[in-house]
Design goal:
Helix content: 25-40%
Distance between the termini: 43 Å
Number of strands: 9
Oligomer: single chain
Structural class: alpha/beta
Number of helices: 11
Radius of gyration: 20 Å
Strand order of the largest sheet: 3-2-1-7-8-9
Order of helices and strands: HEHHHEHEEEHHHEHEHEEH
Shape: elongated
Amino acid sequence: MTETYAAAPAALAPALDPALDPALDPALDLLATGPLVVLTGAGLSTDSGIPDYRGPGRPPRTPMLYGEFVSGPAARQRYWARSHLGWGRMRHAEPNPGHRALVALDPELLITQNVDGLHERAGQRAVVALHGRIAEVVCLECRAVSDRAALHERMTEANPGFTERHAAVAVNPDGDVELDDPAVLADFVVPDCEACGGVLKPHVVFFGENVPPDRVERCYAAVDALAATGGTLLVAGSSLTVMSGLRFVRRAARNGTPVVIVNRGATRGDDLATYTLDVGCSELLSALVERRGAALPGARPPG
């Protein structure tokens, strides 16, 4: 069966039952006062139909490393064939109630490990996309940045019928798919940069690459400011498995800043958290909007 991404409804997420977790009310009370910095991961986008990496029941994955991507044409064919199919579906995903709740909460800074661009599409004011955005493409030779939609059209024209023949493959969180037939991958045509003929790569941080230092410093500055303003770091939908996100939790804890983690399943930062909540992101964030007295765009104010 073909996997599709459903548009999220405009309403609030279902209400949480405080009886499910005794930490829920005190965590909401903490989050309802003072400034917030929010760190989001793949679990925030699951309600938009995008699967997460490490949620309960998810099989282990080994995404392509940067060194493999640049190792030669065969690796890039494999990457782009799979990514072409996945992004063709992923680009239709819509922001969900969790994204819209964060717009209403308007944190001092929203740090996201996601590359899907849904925070920006929801209208978030201050966002640092740590790992970049899958909707952009960069040339590794001339460094020109271009729109992924234009490359998608070029790939579709260069590979007629490819999407239709592989419409049923399963999609992964980063827009990749489960397609490993060497014969199929070897026939995929990968266009070069139109400006210089160089190698094109999604404008995202691969495993084996570093997050640009200016992004990291902006995030550290926002996290550090919480200590002086009585704020809280909220983690929503991240297992904190990779250091790119965990370092901000460690920084907050070292500063004495409260940390609240909302995630389905355990995380690497649980021992540093003031509260850990095993609940849905959309439900928790919608409950926090009501607790803070904010109103979602297009929704009636609480009460």
